[in-house]
Design goal:
Layout lengths: L7 E5 L2 E4 L2 E4 L2 E4 L2 E4 L14 H10 L2 E5 L9 H10 L2 E5 L1 H13 L4 E5 L3
Parallel strand pairs: 6-7, 6-8
Antiparallel strand pairs: 1-2, 2-3, 4-5, 4-8
Length: 119
């Protein structure tokens, strides 16, 4: 049965409107399944906080789209190296750009995970 990726209708105000429903706080979407993500800043992003992405693996995730907050910044080295070792690509950018790109990529049927820090 084919899954359907949720759409990010809006973002800001500390959360996201996802397919019509409001989600307060940061958001992690893996294998088209959204969940709350207990990360409030880029400094909190780690292999542990991204465990669902690593568990899904390359079969489910071509690459991770990481929304790093209000301004673009380099993710921690351990995260970059861990994803590389797992064969999962990484694209990072400010959360607003990541939310917009997520919708484009999932509409194309790409197997993308999104880790979005709320702004």
């Amino acid at each position: 049965m084919a899954r359907s990726a949720p759409t990010i209708d809006s973002y800001g105000g500390g959360g996201f409107r996802l397919s019509g429903d409001w989600h307060q706080g940061s958001l992690l979407i893996v294998a088209d399944e959204p969940r709350a993500w207990a990360v409030n800043s880029l400094a909190e992003v780690s292999r542990e906080t991204l465990a669902p992405v690593f568990e899904a693996g390359r079969a489910e995730v071509e690459f991770l789209l990481l929304g790093v907050g209000a301004a673009n910044a380099l993710p921690p080295k351990e995260v970059r190296q861990g994803l590389l070792a797992a064969g999962i690509g990484l694209e990072f950018m400010d959360t607003a750009a990541a939310a917009r790109l997520y919708n484009v990529l999932t509409s194309e049927g790409r197997r993308v995970a999104a880790a979005l820090i709320a702004i």
